[in-house]
From TrEMBL:
Membrane-spanning residues: 59-77, 84-117, 129-153, 192-214, 234-267, 279-298, 310-331
Superkingdom, taxonomy of origin: Bacteria
The protein, known as: FUSC family protein
Membrane-protein topology: Multi-pass membrane protein
Localisation: Membrane
Residue ranges occupied by any Integral membrane bound transporter domain in the UniProt entry: 197-323
GO CC annotations, alphabetized: membrane
Species of the source: Cryobacterium psychrophilum
Predominant localisation class: membrane
Keywords assigned by UniProt, alphabetized: Membrane, Transmembrane, Transmembrane helix
Length: 341
């Protein structure tokens, strides 16, 4: 099991680090977001047999690139808030339906929403549409190749593969009729309501980076059919708060860019090692990772960045927690009472 987690974490770290190094060497580090979100392709198909993995990773890559392209178009057009909001609703709906249909894991649209929200708000000159798009395509293609590379490694290892790698036993459940499942549409509805409420409150309060409140809601709410967990909301809030402290220790001294790229790679590795074991512990790495990527893409005063992250995560986590509690209460009311003796 440890060898398997190490394999997954290593390819995830490499998939994000190398594109960032290329951008650094070509003096285009302000395009880091496109490389980072394209590289998230490597987060899918963790332990699926390769024939299945090829399908799910391809679907995930194409979906991520579709949303990045959509967000780039809106950014170039300087779309108004109303259009960006409609776009967010579309990303949530399409992301959940496609993930449920193709059996993607992670099964939530959190990475797609994060990518859309960040890219859509980045100032984008019209003549930079294609270069930025191609950075995302190149990063996604590289991540796809790394994710599938285990097939060749296992072939080379031959009989030793059982000792080097975990057997790939879990296939993705394809559900062509997922769009007719009420649970899928219920998940879409609660994600849309929670995201719009969190984003609206964050903007009304004048907090910077309101998409973090939106992402926090989507990260806490469960995929269609899964149990609603109160603990996940608390893990999100507490893990993020501690992660912000860690990020502050990294960002406040103002280290050189190559150190920040190394931090991103280390955090990606740590997050993948822990995400299946303890969500709150994984956020100790996820939070510095996200903050460092945003800092590279659009530098801002570090203390403002850290405070916004804590406030908006607490806001989004609180709204998601309220939705979870309401759903649990409704489920208890629907549960039939035992007959009186």
């Amino acid at each position: 099991m440890r060898a398997f987690h190490f394999e997954v974490a290593s390819r995830a770290a490499l998939s994000v680090a190398l594109p960032l190094v290329v951008l650094l060497l070509t003096d285009h580090l302000d395009w880091a977001a496109y490389a980072a979100f394209g590289a998230m392709t490597s987060l899918f198909g963790r332990n699926e047999p390769y024939r299945v993995r090829m399908r799910t990773v391809t679907v995930a890559a194409l979906l991520m690139l579709t949303f990045i392209t959509f967000a780039l178009v809106l950014a170039v057009a300087q779309a108004p808030l109303f259009v960006l909001t409609l776009g967010l609703v579309a990303v949530l709906a399409v992301g959940i339906i496609v993930a449920s249909t193709a059996g993607l894991f992670p099964a939530t649209p959190v990475f797609f929403v994060f990518g859309y929200a960040v890219v859509a708000q980045l100032p984008t000159p019209g003549d930079e549409f294609w270069p930025r798009f191609l950075v995302a395509v190149a990063a996604a293609s590289f991540a796809w190749t790394l994710t599938m590379s285990g097939w060749l490694l296992r072939r080379v290892a031959g009989e030793r593969s059982d000792a080097l790698f975990k057997n790939l036993l879990y296939g993705a459940l394809v559900r062509p009729a997922a769009y007719r499942d009420r649970r899928v549409w219920f998940s879409v509805a609660q994600n849309v309501v929670g995201a719009l409420l969190a984003g609206g409150l964050a903007m009304a309060a004048g907090i910077g980076h309101p998409y973090w409140a939106v992402v926090s809601v989507v990260a806490v709410l469960p995929p269609p059919g899964a149990a609603h967990s109160v603990s996940r909301a608390f893990h999100r809030i507490i893990g993020t708060a501690i992660g912000v402290v860690i990020a502050g220790l990294v960002l406040v001294p103002g280290p050189p860019v190559f150190v920040l790229i190394a931090v991103i790679a280390i955090c990606q590795f740590g997050a993948e090692m822990l995400i299946g074991r303890h969500y709150g512990a994984a956020l100790l790495f996820v939070t510095p990772l996200a903050l460092t990527v945003v800092h590279l893409t659009s530098p801002a005063p570090v203390h403002t960045l850290l405070i916004d992250r804590v406030i908006e995560t607490t806001l989004g986590g609180g709204i998601a927690l309220a939705i979870v509690l309401l759903v649990q209460a409704a489920a208890r009311r629907r549960k039939p009472r035992p007959p009186l003796s």
